[in-house]
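note to self — DONT lose this again. spent like an hour looking for the file last time. sequence + predicted structure for the chain T wanted, 293 res
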Amino acid sequence: MATRKVIITVAQTGAFHGKEANPNIPLQPEEIAQSAYDCYNAGAAIVHIHARDTAGKSTNDPVVYSDIGSRIRAKCNVILQYSTAPANKAGTTAEDGMQLLYYKDLVKPEMCSLDCSLIGTSWADRTFVYEWYRPFLIKYAQMMKDMGIKPELECFDPTSVEDVFNVLEPAGCLSDPVSLSFVMGMDKISQGAISFSEENLDFMIKKLPRDRFVNFSTISIGAKNHVPGMAMTILKGGGARVGMEDNIYYAPGRLLKSNAEMVERAVRIIHELGLEVATPDEARDILHIPHSA
């Protein structure tokens, strides 16, 4: 019997904390590209990408995404997965996160995130609601399908998992296999987001269809949850998601030196469990993504 191949996704840079939290987090295109290359060499198949402007502030600027993507593609064939979450700054809307889908000269990603929950977040001095309504999700899931982009459906609570299979899929805007991530541990700053626990993880997994393959991983936020969430998800049949977007510590009191350091840990765990790490092309086969030219 063939050994299961585990897909490792690394989220190197998020939209919230920056070098003030960990000076090793990559923010500028060349930093992100070099980090992606190091993660690829360590065993990552997918790099999840957020962009920052020259001041290090969160941005949805398609030009910056394209710059990051072209730099990474010049180094390796890792799968590019762009974030479509709105930038973490005053006045942004859900639509702002989708700018890159309209940019004709963009280095097109093979995957994009698509957040599937209605949540309210309080960060620093502002509180805002992500307006990811059902018509919005159907519109952009269909646009991604038409563009040949695989959506990574991010689900912050059990009802959003149900929406994937009871609303989006019947609308015809998803292609098999569905790929999704359980976002767990954002409850500290986001109303409507589920906390991380094995009980909650099992409940989310039970929401998935039993009659076919669904690719899933867990975005387990914070030092306490990060490695247990990743390891539990692998044991329960899913992939591995790691990176400084979700966690900046390697161990209590010890900051991560790089994103690749956490990828290397995931590789060790996967091998200790008797499983294998999927290469980017093996991940493309699993997810039904065409191979790069």
